[in-house]
Each structure stands twice: as structure tokens, then as C-alpha cells.
Amino acid sequence: MEDTLTHRQLQSLIHISNVLNTSFDIETIIELIMRETISVVEAAEGGSLWLYNKKLDCLIAQSAQGVFYPKIFRQIRLKPGESMTGKTFESRKSLIYKNDIEIKKALATLSLNNSKLLSRAIPHNFHFSTVISAPIFLKGECIGVFTLDSFQQSLNFKPEDLHLLEAICHQAAVALERSSLYKEKEQTVKNLSYSIETHRTLANLVLQGEDLQSILHYIHRWIGQNTFLFDELGDILTSSSDPALSSQILMFVKQQARIMMNATENSLSVKEVEVAGVPYHLVRLPLGSKPNFLGLLMILSTKKLGDMDLAALEHACTVLSLQLFKEQTVFETQQRLQGEFVTKLFSEQMDEALFQKAKSLDLNPAHNYITILIEFSAHSNNKKHPQDGLIRKIIQLTNLAFLGPHTKGMTVTHHQQIVVLLSEPSNTAKSLIVSRIKEKAKWIQKEIISRNWEVEIAFGIGRVKQGLQNVYKSLKEAENCLNFIRTLNWENSILSYSDLGIQRFILQNPEEEVLEFINEMIGPLIDYENSRKGDLLKTLYVYLEGNQNVKKTVDTLHVHINTLSYRLKRIEEILSIDLTDSNQVLNLHLAVNIYRYIKKKPSLQMV
């Protein structure tokens, strides 16, 4: 259903684009856009397109279709901030009014005259149910608003409806600008045909299933200049440029993209730059609008681009935005389907249907499986990356690292974390599997640092389990590893369950029992250390870690053998133990090791 809807949206936008090419009469174009929009958005039963009049400081309806009485409706004059449409204009962002309460609150801002006109313009048996409204921008300036209305409780607007409306607003802005240019210069008609043909070609490329690389390659051939496409995080998605382009120039373009990502301006901009002594024109075209920012199209040109080339590039941005939106929709659909599978898999409720689902996902239920759990947190100063975009990029990076022709699996979000499920042939050594995973995890961490995503990422790695029916055990082990890293400030952010050793004692027992055990074994020594600031606890740890080797302990601590003998005797006196008793030494060693970690956690510190 989602894929079909996306295709319908694309066809509708292409149809609207073709409509724009049939006339330069703006009133005719607006009426046709209104009709097409209301017909394609299922919940829309009415709609209106408003333009801002600077002289009157108000929004005036250019078209009203659906249930409205147009002649009355067009008499309404909305001030910025007045009603749903005026609030959208004032806030310069798309708004959705989901229920009667939100709508009534917005309508309460209407002037008395406008309120009367609105009542007369709508039949008495119709009442607003939901409303969506999007601003129309032209060269960074909000020039109007497009509003769609639903009057039935059973019909509600969807998030994709708002995305479609925003894309149509972009088309409307292009149409308004084109009409203005036509009135100014007759020669514009000839130039626009070039832009239109370019847009048609790009739209056809999308309909034919071509990818972003093919679209960008076409733009590069048409414009004849270096062309780059960046995502919303400032990473380069694809490019089409001169093969001889130096690494210095490429680095410069990447730096400029990151700078422009943080700019408050979200419109086409052109500036003159110089790289390695060579002058260029750097053209920046945003894809989408905040908060639904999709990325940047950047052109590094050796010549100044004309107005018509820039207008054609804005058309190209619409097509690129649609393609990116389509890819995001496919990604989100895949995540939802795989997420449902993973949720059932980890619930320990295996059945035949789930086994069949695994096979359809190219997972052999009899293979070995291992789970990796990824937890990430943005730096406190990281406010520039959208959360959804960041998660999507981490998942893509993770897939690049872990999945390949010889490794099956999936990467999905699960309970605010990222789960990697890997299938391995049964003849692969388990230690080798874990070792490879650690290396790839290190690579992911390095990539995140090099890309300046400003996030910290930790990996919990479960053990290899035989068969899908046991994979939930690997997940629990991975969760324990992350818990160990998080709660005990573990210095290594990549931890496998096999690495924990005796530290599993902490994870498998209540905090009270852990503290009680430590207190019984070394409590008096801890108290002694706290009161005298001595070195007995450290001496005991080094002595036990060195397998009670006196020479090794002396060398590590840099003390005389008599000093060590004194300290060991003092430890035996304080703890009332015998360091030659193997059972006591075993418990003592365990207690000292655990205490090293829990003393870092306030909730587990000894009293």
C-alpha cells in the first residue's frame, strides 16, 4: 500500500508539472493544481490557495474548491497569524490540526468579519474535522499558503499527505515565478521550454526506476558542471564531476556543505569562491524544507549560471526530493517488516509461520546466529542532526560493515536501540566470528568520528547460538554487555559476553547479594583503606592477579620484598584469612575483581 501510494503521489506531481507547462495564466494553473490535489489526497474535501498581499498585509484566497462557495470565500482577508492558514504563514512551517479542539482554537483568532464570511462560505452541515496547511516559499520568502480541509471524522490526513502538499507548494512557487518572468520578458518562454524538458526528462527517469546516481549524471551532462548530492547529515550521497577534480576541491565542497547545513537560510544561494587559486561559482540548492530537510544539491561551476539554469535546477531538486522521499519510504517499510519479525523472534514464541517468514527473508533457521546490540547517544552539543536521519545513516553504515554476499542478516531498530542479527555457517569458528565483529565495530566507530556525526556508540555482542529458536539468548547476552558498559563505566565500548568472565557474577545476581558478598570477603579491608589511605587493597589485587607470585608482585609495585611480606601479613590479620588456603583465595580474588568495577557506580558503592 505504501509503495502504491508513493507511486500515486509521484504520478500526481508529474501531472501537475505537466499542467504547469500548458499555460502561463496563473489563475488557470492554480485552479488545475487545486483540483488535482483534492482528487489525489483521499481525506481532502476542500482546499484553498492563498497569496500574501504586502500592501494590504493580508492573505487573499486565489482559489477555493470542494465544499466552499468560492465567491464568498474569496472575500476573506486573513492577517498573518489569523486562523489555520494565517498561523502557517506566520510560523513559516507546515502545520496539521488533528481534531476539533485544535481547529476551534485556531478559528477563534478570526476577525468578526472573516468569521461571518467563513460561516457563509461553508454549508451548514459541514464542520472542519482535520486541516493541513503548508507555506509557499519563493527565493526564501513566504509568499502564500496552501490549505486542505477534511469535514468527516472518518477521514484523517496522513503524514505523507503533508509531504505531498509541501512538494505541490514548491511546484506552485515555481509556477508563480515563471509566470512573473514571462510577463517581464517574452524571451523567457523559449528558455523555459528548456527547463520544462529537463524536468520532464528527470521525472521520466524516476518513473523508469533510475537511481540517484543516474539522475545526478543527467544533471551533470545537462549543466556541464561538477554536481554533488549531500544527505541531511552532510555526507555525500553521490556525485557526477570531472574525473580530474582534485581531492583539495572535493574536500572544500564537503566543508562548504557542512557549513551550509547549519545555515538558517533554506533557499537557493550562489556565491563566488576560490579554490587553489581558481575562481568558481558555488550553487547551493536545498532539498525539502525544515523540519523535513532531505539534503543539498551543490554545483561547483566554472561559469555563472543563468536564471533559467537555476530555475531548471530547482525543478531538478523537486525530482531529487521525491526520489529521496521514496527511498526513505522503502527503507521505513523494510524496517517495519523486519522489526515485526525481530520482535516476534526475541519474544521466544517460535512457530511455523515465523520459520517460514525467516526463509522468505533468506535466513536459514538451522544456521548459527549471533546478535549485536548497538546503543548510541548524541553529544550534548549535537543539535544539528535529525534523530531519524541519524538512525537511518547508522543502520546503513552497519549494513555496509556486517552484511555482504557471504553473510546474511538484518539490521533494525528495536526498543530505541539497533539490533544486528547475523547468520553464520555452522562450520565457522565462534571465536573467529566474534573477532571479526569486533573489528567491524571498530571500523564503524572510526567512520562515525570521521564523518563528524557527534555521537558515541557502544556495541554489546552476544554469543553464537545454534538455530533461530535460541537467538533470543544471544540478544539477552548482548543487553547484559551494554548494561555492563553503561552502568559500570566500562572503558571499552565494544564488549562481547565471552569477554566478561567472572564479571558475569555482577549481571546474574541482585545488587544486594553482590554487595553482601564483597562486604563479607573484603569489607574490613575496604574500611581500613578508607580510614588510612593505604596500599593494602592494591597490593592484594596485584598479588592475586600475579598468581601469588612474590617476585612479580614486588616488581609491579616497586616495593621491597619485606614490605610486601608485611602488607600480606597485615591483610591476613584484617580479613582473618589464610592466603595459602586456595578456597579463600578464590573467593577473595572474585570479590576484589568485582569491587574494582562496582566502586565506579554510585548506587553500588560500599557504605
Strand order of the largest sheet: 3-2-1-6-5-4
Estimate nothing, just give the exact number of structural domains: 4
> What sort of overall outline do the alpha carbons produce when their principal axes are compared?
elongated
- In the CATH hierarchy, what is the class of the largest domain? Alpha Beta
Low-confidence runs? 1-5
**Percent range for helical residues?**
40-55%
CATH topology of the largest domain: Beta-Lactamase
Total DSSP helices: 21
Radius of gyration: 32 Å
- Overall structural class, as computed from helix and strand content, comes to alpha+beta
Which assembly state applies to the chains in this document? Answer: single chain
Strand count: 17
Report on the structure:
- The chain is α+β, with helices and mostly antiparallel strands.
- The protein has four domains: 2-184, Beta-Lactamase (2-Layer Sandwich), CATH 3.30.450.40; 211-327, GAF domain (Beta-Lactamase), CATH 3.30.450.40; 348-499, Reverse transcriptase/Diguanylate cyclase domain (Alpha-Beta Plaits, 2-Layer Sandwich), CATH 3.30.70.270; 507-604, PucR C-terminal helix-turn-helix domain (Arc Repressor Mutant, subunit A, Orthogonal Bundle).
- The chain has 21 helices and 17 strands.
- It has helices at residues 2-20, 26-40, 70-73, 83-91, 100-107, 112-121, 159-184, 188-207, 212-223, 247-261, 307-346, 352-360, 387-402, 430-450, 471-487, 504-507, 511-532, 536-545, 550-557, 561-575, 582-598; strands at residues 46-53, 58-66, 77-78, 95-97, 130-138, 141-150, 226-231, 236-240, 269-275, 278-289, 292-301, 368-378, 408-414, 417-424, 455-461, 465-466, 494-496.
- Strands 3-2-1-6-5-4 form a six-stranded antiparallel sheet, sandwiched between helices. Strands 12, 13, 14, 15, 16 and 17 form a six-stranded mixed sheet that branches.
- Strand 13 and strand 14 (417-424) form a beta hairpin.
- Helix 8 (188-207) packs parallel to helix 11 and helix 18 packs across helix 20.
- The longest helix has 40 residues, at 307-346.
- Mean pLDDT is 83; it is low at 1-5.
